[in-house]
Amino acid sequence: MERIFVRSADCSLLEVVVGKRNPLCLIVIAPVLAGALLPSFGWAQGKPPIKVGALFQLAGPKSEYGRHGSQGVKMAVKEINERGGILGRTLQVFVTHEGTATTGAQEARRYILEDKVDFLVGGDSSSVALAVSAEAKKHRKIVLFTHAGADQLTGKACHRYAFRVVDNAGMNARAAAFVMRNKMAKRWYSIGPDSEFGRSAWEEFRLAILKVNPDALFVGESWLKPWTSDYTNVLDAAVTAKPDAVWSTLEGNDLVTFVRQAQSFGFFERVKFFVNPAGASLAVLGPLGDKMPGGLWVSTRYWFLYPDGVENQVFVKAYQALYGEYPADVALSSYSAIQLLKRVIEEVGSLDTEKIVARLEGITYRDPEGVKTIRSEDHQVIKDVVWGRTTKSSEYPFRILDDLVVIPGEELVRSVDETGCQM
Q1: Which candidate, 199, 215, 301, places its Cα nearest to that of 247?
Q2: Phi, psi of 61 (to 5 degrees)
Q3: In terms of CB atoms within 10 Å, which end of the chain has fewer, N or C?
Q4: Are 31 and 97 spatial neighbours (Cβ–Cβ below 8 Å)?
Q5: Are 339 and 311 in contact (CB under 8 A)?
Q6: How much is the average pLDDT of 57-79?
Q7: pLDDT at residue 18 is higher than 80
Q8: What tens digit of pLDDT does each residue of 224-266 get?
Q9: What's the whole-number mean pLDDT along residues 388-413?
Q10: Is the pLDDT of residue 6 over 90?
Q11: CATH classification number, 2-167+309-382, choose in 3.40.50.1820, 1.10.10.1800, 3.40.50.2300, 3.40.50.1980
């Protein structure tokens, strides 16, 4: 058994005992309470814990991402503390629901001023991440973003204390254009969230697809609010525009709902290609199961079957043993962020913020997905991006990827001048 401490309504800590295979207890509590994952053994003698404040979407259409993200963090904390902690100190990680941009900024501020955390990690929503990043800058607190994709985070809104350990919207859009460069798709329609991420990703894709297919036409757009329950009008509008292909940045539960309704509508039989940079996340494929159509071109920030090396296999098996499921993309990035912090703290030999920033800038590191580098000029990670087509599998209860296309990160990042980042 392990212990999880959660905040009561008056912010005091209460202990909840849960079984090893019942991590959902945290998710049930987290939407209304902030929680801390504490190890089951005592603190190192005379040394305070190293504290990390994590923020995820634990309710709403992105809750599956938040669930996997918090599980990835929890797994890293468990491994680190079982191996002696960091510099002889126990690692303590708080996890809370990030909510809206206003709520996320408030939670980040409380982490910094009340809980006295040493670092921030997470960020599922781009709008929330931008607000959290502003708080981190104000208080000179290092933050590692593990999901939010808006280019601004490492672009015009970049700063010395913000780092991103996943590919951004622009990288994935350019990867998609590379995948589609030789496909018979001239007329494009966009279906996406009415958000910074959705609109910036569409603009990046438009620019990228025109470079490889100058004859491309853009025949319509549909912008949607979170938790849209009826996509009939959107499907009608898209079909009426007669596109060859649909670019969609819907994600999480919104994409799950869309796919189910589009299936009933016969939508996927009426367009040649459906392209989605979030469609291969297990936060989407898992809930859809065999309802996910085959032949869709999709991507994810981490595909659990790639690469087929020992390190990734060990990670997947360990995650399965702990949670009884396969890791989604945010599970890996959140796990990796905590492990990266451990490495850098130990190399620096202290919690000195400026020394840790200097070590993170330009660092090359390896995680279960492979070798990655954080660019020193804008703090954007450079990593490979994986795309593939959905297909049936007799081994898994959900669709997996076939015809994998792996695009090197160096070919996808914009120059620092193009990002608008000025540290």
Answers
A1: 199
A2: -70, -15
A3: N
A4: yes
A5: no
A6: 97
A7: no
A8: 998 999 999 999 999 999 999 999 999 999 999 999 999 999 9
A9: 97
A10: no
A11: 3.40.50.2300
Look at residue 407 and give its three-state secondary structure: strand
Q: How far apart are CA 257 and CA 400, in angstroms?
A: 19
Residue 389 one-letter amino acid: R
Q: Quick one: pLDDT at residue 45?
A: 60
Nearest alpha carbon to residue 95 among 123, 62, 125: 123
Contact call for residues 187 and 209 (beta carbons, < 8 A): no
User: Between β-strands 370-374 and 381-382, what pairing exists: parallel, antiparallel or unpaired?
Assistant: antiparallel
pLDDT at 339 over 60: yes
State how far the Cα of 294 lies from the Cα of 95, in Å rounded to an integer. 36
The tokens of 51 are what? 């504290």
Q: Do the domains at 2-167+309-382 and 170-303+384-419 have one common CATH topology?
A: yes
> pTM to 2 decimals?
0.90
Domain borders along the chain are 2-167+309-382, 170-303+384-419
pLDDT of 46 reads 72
First to last CA, the chain: 46
Q: What is the pLDDT of residue 79?
A: 98
Residue 158 contacts residue 168 (beta carbons within 8 Å): no
User: How far apart, in whole angstroms, are the C-alpha atoms of residue 298 and residue 283?
Assistant: 13
Residue 274 has pLDDT above 80, yes or no: yes
Residue type at 414 in one-letter notation: R
- Strands 35-37 and 370-374, by their bridges, are unpaired
Q: Of 410, 4, 386, which is closest to residue 172 (Cα–Cα)?
A: 386
CATH class of the region 170-303+384-419: alpha beta
- Beta carbons within 8 Å of 330's beta carbon, 6+ residues apart: 56, 65, 66, 68, 69, 72, 124, 146, 147, 281, 283, 301
Average pLDDT, the chain: 91
Q: Is the pLDDT reported for residue 41 higher than 90?
A: no
Q: Do residues 283 and 258 lie in contact, with contact meaning Cβ atoms separated by under 8 Å?
A: no
Residue 309 to residues 225, 300, 367, Cα–Cα distance (Å): 40, 18, 11
